[in-house]
Amino acid sequence: MATTELTTEAFQQTLEDSEILFIDFWAEWCGPCKQFGPVYEQVSEEHPEITFAKVDTEAERELAAAAKISSIPTLMAFREKVLVFSQPGALNAEQLTQVVTAVKDLDMAEVHKQIAEQEQSSEA
User: Fold this and answer.
1) Which residues are catalytic?
2) Rounded to whole angstroms, what are the CA distances from 100 to 5, 29, 47?
3) Whole-prediction pTM value?
4) Which of 94, 100, 116, 119 counts the most CB atoms within 10 A of its CB?
5) Domains of the chain by range and CATH?
């Protein structure tokens, strides 16, 4: 599946519908974003089972603000609606493929357990 443009209105539904969701926050004027774009597109073609989305931070300022984007490009990955990766900066194809593999290989039972433990300790 090719990348899709993600809007504020579509964000929640896309998150709900995707077991794994990668989001590239970018802008037209951003040089590193333009370098990363084709890499992101290429890797998305290699992983049709994953949702790859792009957010134009100029057009979707509210969504970029909600995601606390302070530098672009920023790549975020969600698995089972949990943010499991967030990093600014352009990656090459090999690095992005490593991130995709790492996200796919996560033990989500362990991730959910750690989140529950953090929530309990913050309530105490």
Assistant:
1) 30, 33
2) 19, 26, 9
3) 0.92
4) 100
5) 4-123 (3.40.30.10)
Residues, the chain: 124
pLDDT tens column, 14-71? 999 999 999 999 999 999 999 999 999 999 999 999 999 999 999 999 999 999 999 9
Round to whole Å and give the CA distance between 45 and 50.
9
Q: What is the 3-state secondary structure (H, E, C) of the chain?
A: CCCEECCHHHHHHHHHHCCEEEEEEECCCCHHHHHHHHHHHHHHHHCCCCEEEEEECCCCHHHHHHCCCCCCCEEEEEECCEEEEEEECCCCHHHHHHHHHHHHHCCHHHHHHHHHHHHHHHHC
